[in-house]
């Protein structure tokens, strides 16, 4: 989510959050709209980190492939980038269209699949790296702390467990379980301060073939300390009888179901 889109999203979220009357949610055309926006924002925070993790798995796989299939693999998944290796253990994903460096990756001397390996990645315009630590047995912990000049603070800790019997080549076509928590606070665009925190309550199950989350739930809190407002919601992923992905929002003891179409907003 770039800075301009972030500002527009938060303005919408803050207005919805501020205008919500806890005592009469049923008077709203969509009583769950503020909660749905909280859920969307939280899912976006998580998916942004997952996209970065996918780049690390791709690079590891790419570097260890036979030269005869490297280019085919890159063209299939990341043809919009050239991979530049300016110095030992540093790799750059340079976008072909404008020659901009979009991702900077710091590799370990060890494979990302080896316990104890620490790889780092940063996206263009981000101030800090996401740090990925391999815990062994195809499990990783991903930690991101970001403090920007706008006094916005974000911190996420995710645990990613491959659920397949073979090592993960990419995230996007592999089955994974995701747990963790995070917070995004001191959001201030001249309207109010807002803090959103989340905890993955039930493990999110990502199905690579469907490119979506098929089960799991997230507890979310939104706090406006200045105006003494507090909101909570729970979002639960599930697949219906027609094998379509949905998420169910619970808000003020009421529930509403939304079609997700792409339930994790994974923009590769």
Write a brief structural summary:
The chain is α+β, with helices and mostly antiparallel strands. The protein has helices at 3-19, 33-63, 67-77; strands at residues 81-87, 90-95, 101-106, 118-123, 130-136, 139-147, 153-162, 176-188, 193-207, 212-224, 229-239, 245-251, 254-259.
Note down, in words, how this protein is organized.
By secondary structure, this protein is of the alpha+beta class. Helices cover 22% and strands 43% of the residues. The chain is built from three helices and 13 strands, in the order αααβββββββββββββ. The protein has a 13-stranded antiparallel β-sheet, with helices on one face. Mean pLDDT is 85; it is low at 1-12, 17-28 and 263-268.
Task: Describe this protein with a few key phrases.
alpha+beta; disordered N terminus; 268 residues; globular
């Amino acid at each position: 989510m770039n800075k301009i889109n972030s500002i527009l999203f938060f303005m919408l979220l803050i207005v919805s959050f501020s205008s919500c009357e806890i005592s009469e949610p049923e008077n709203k055309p969509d009583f769950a709209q503020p909660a749905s926006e909280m859920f969307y924002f939280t899912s976006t925070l998580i998916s942004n980190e997952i996209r970065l993790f996918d780049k690390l798995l791709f690079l590891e796989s790419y570097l260890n492939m036979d030269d005869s299939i490297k280019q085919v693999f890159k063209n299939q998944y990341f043809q919009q980038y050239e991979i530049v290796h300016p110095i030992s253990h540093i790799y750059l994903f340079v976008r072909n269209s404008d020659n901009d460096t979009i991702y900077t990756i710091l590799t370990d001397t060890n494979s990302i699949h080896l316990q104890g390996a620490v790889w780092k990645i940063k996206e263009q315009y981000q101030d800090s790296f996401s740090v990925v630590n391999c815990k062994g047995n195809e499990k990783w912990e991903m930690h991101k702390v970001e403090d920007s000049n706008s006094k916005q603070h974000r911190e996420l800790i995710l645990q990613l467990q491959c659920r397949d019997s073979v090592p993960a080549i990419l995230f996007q076509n592999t089955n994974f379980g995701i747990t963790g928590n995070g917070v995004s606070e001191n959001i201030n665009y001249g309207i109010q301060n807002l803090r959103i925190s989340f905890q993955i309550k039930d493990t999110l199950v990502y199905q690579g073939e469907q490119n979506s989350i098929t089960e799991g739930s997230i507890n979310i809190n939104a706090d406006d300390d200045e105006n003494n407002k507090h909101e909570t919601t729970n979002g639960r992923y599930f697949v219906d009888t027609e094998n379509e992905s949905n998420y169910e929002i619970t808000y003020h003891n009421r529930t509403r179901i939304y079609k997700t179409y792409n339930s994790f907003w994974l923009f590769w």
